[in-house]
């Protein structure tokens, strides 16, 4: 049994050496999460890539599938198989508390995964549901969460097609965690991915930011922020379909700014596209209650999670048409242009401030809002 | 905020009323798990089925997809989309300990999901990986698990295509949990599902049973069972492909006997097929170390999990050809016929004992081997 947990052959990658152990920030969706993906998961998972290529099964994936490496572990992957393009994504949900103003872990688990598919331009088809339940969880809580998932899936027109249930001993979970994975169909011609963002693109935000994060914090910390705030949790594939109806080639990149907020979404797309991003801070729709709560808590609204918003990178010539299509859709009626993509300062996101200056916008390190989704 | 965790509208379904709270047995894969699926998840998830049908997105799923209801929440679903048939499945892995003789949670997470696809006759294409990590987990442990997943996926010729990482506070997980979901392609003509088992079918077990469960228990309880026992964890899609190469129509139903063991697999297929199962107890290959450990622990080997075996229901006329194909494959070299399907006693599984009598074989209630996978 010397093979049990034999760690001698595993060397901690240099960029991860500051942390010999997992910290909450590794799950924050920011820099630490990226480092874990880049330096731990991708090398481990890629170890057998060449082997897989030799296997007859791999031949079923069309050559174009190699392009899905762009999405590995970060977004929905797109697999070309049997003449269709399949989007495939996964997310686990560990939000605390399970119920919050405007929704629950059930709606999040459906909307979050639907939105990951939508941000590749895919029409969501089916979701899986994998539950990890804590011994002692009230059945009524599980029943409510399952109902929320059923209703959210029905409203989104997506089927909960397969599932799994595990139970762990009391104290080894926090009520329940749920994973949803999703498959969707990418319509012909649609090619939406972070690295298609290009200089000249206009950047559109679909609505007010930060409401989900502040709604969850309000109940978690028992705080009142001088206003009602509800999670913005919503499925966005209908909005995306409306945008693609306006123009297929003009929609270059989409991202739903969840963990790490709008700042992280902009930074990730800037990095993937090898281009700069510039936006006007005052153009970003921040509801007063989010502004107030962020002031109180010392948070930057640009770092606070949304669960029903997207940021779109659209060809300049198509911006008016896409914006009009978004505003005609309930999920995008407050859509606004906040900035554009530039050939300068590739990979860097710059905000123009109210005082006429500029500041560099970065991703949070990771730990500021644990378990927000 | 009256909507937060408002449980007044949720009524506990009658069959679940013995348990107002989740018990470990709800995750055991036996009767309690089935009850939770049937009475809690399926009604909640089906609540919006008709709505989904009206949504244009649902039209992308071919009508044949309705047949996948047989697999809802229990096995891989098969979705007909764009002229191909896609198998889709999910499993969360919470095995304790993370490393055991013959493997780790990493191999299990790849093999288990590959095998769920294979048991619908599908060629596995891609897996997702969703991690829930406990704050304080050693990076080296995570690194080892990720490497195990990478190697297992490479050996199986399947790609780890997309992923997600969440972190929860110290004490709210047990090191790490991982969910893998999988998509696969069902080849033309292949139609493998529990309800295709039919009277006259021969029942084949692919190899010795119970090694995974006993291997995990041996390290968990620090027991020695008078022999070396290693998990049988293995990918079975190669074996299934060999069986289908012998005959496509003759392979009626497949199941990998994981949680709940061979007994549960037989009972579930008998129930789905509305047919009886009869088998000879002495024909089931039980390794001496499994026999000894079960005697010591008071377990029935038929209830102990395998992670690299399958049970096949094959048309009588094709049995010899399928058996020969299995024995020619490394994963099936010890395959044996253990019994047959009968029109009598539908839904009931009967074992012929060594003493010439018979006994009814049932599923475990659920709690005897928690967290075995």
UniProtKB/TrEMBL annotation, chains A, B:
It holds the Pfam family AIRS_C. Residues 75-186 form the PurM-like N-terminal domain. Residues 199-349 form the PurM-like C-terminal domain. Transmembrane segments: none annotated. GO terms for biological process: protein maturation. SUPFAM superfamilies: PurM C-terminal domain-like, PurM N-terminal domain-like. InterPro entries: HypE, PurM-like_C_dom, PurM-like_C_sf, PurM-like_N, PurM-like_N_sf. Belongs to the HypE family. This is Hydrogenase expression/formation protein HypE. It comes from Frankia torreyi.
């Amino acid at each position: 049994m010397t093979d049990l947990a034999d760690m001698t052959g595993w060397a901690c990658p240099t960029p991860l050496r500051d942390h010999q152990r997992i910290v909450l920030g590794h799950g924050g969706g920011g820099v630490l999460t990226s480092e874990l993906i880049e330096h731990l998961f991708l090398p481990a998972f890629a170890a057998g890539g060449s082997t897989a290529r030799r296997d007859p099964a791999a031949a079923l994936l069309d050559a174009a599938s190699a392009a899905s490496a762009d999405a590995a572990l970060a977004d929905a992957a797109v697999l070309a198989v049997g003449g269709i393009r399949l989007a495939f994504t996964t997310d686990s949900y560990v939000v605390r508390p399970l119920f919050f103003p405007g929704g629950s872990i059930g709606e999040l688990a459906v909307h979050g995964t639907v939105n990951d598919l939508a941000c590749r331009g895919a029409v969501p088809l089916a979701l899986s549901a994998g539950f990890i339940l804590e011994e002692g969880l009230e059945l009524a809580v599980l029943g409510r969460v399952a109902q929320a998932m059923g209703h959210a899936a029905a409203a989104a027109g997506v089927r909960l097609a397969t599932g799994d249930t595990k139970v762990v001993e009391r104290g080894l979970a926090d009520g329940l965690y749920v994973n949803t994975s999703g498959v969707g169909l990418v319509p012909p011609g649609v090619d939406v991915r972070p690295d298609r963002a290009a200089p000249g693109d206009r950047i559109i935000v679909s609505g007010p930011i930060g409401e989900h994060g502040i709604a969850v914090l309000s109940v978690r910390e028992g705080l009142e922020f001088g206003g009602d705030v509800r999670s913005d949790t919503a499925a966005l594939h209908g909005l995306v379909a409306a945008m693609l109806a306006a123009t297929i080639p003009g929609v270059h990149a989409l991202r739903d700014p969840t963990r790490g907020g709008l700042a992280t979404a902009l930074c990730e797309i800037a990095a993937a596209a090898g281009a700069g991003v510039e936006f006007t801070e005052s153009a970003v729709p921040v509801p007063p209650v989010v502004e107030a709560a962020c002031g109180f808590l010392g948070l930057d609204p640009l770092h606070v999670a949304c669960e029903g918003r997207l940021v779109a990178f659209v060809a300049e010539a198509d911006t008016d048409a896409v914006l009009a299509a978004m505003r005609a859709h309930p999920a995008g009626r407050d859509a606004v242009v906040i900035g554009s993509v530039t050939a300068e300062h590739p990979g860097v996101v710059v905000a123009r401030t109210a005082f006429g200056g500029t500041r560099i916008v970065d991703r949070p390190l990771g730990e500021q809002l644990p378990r927000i989704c």
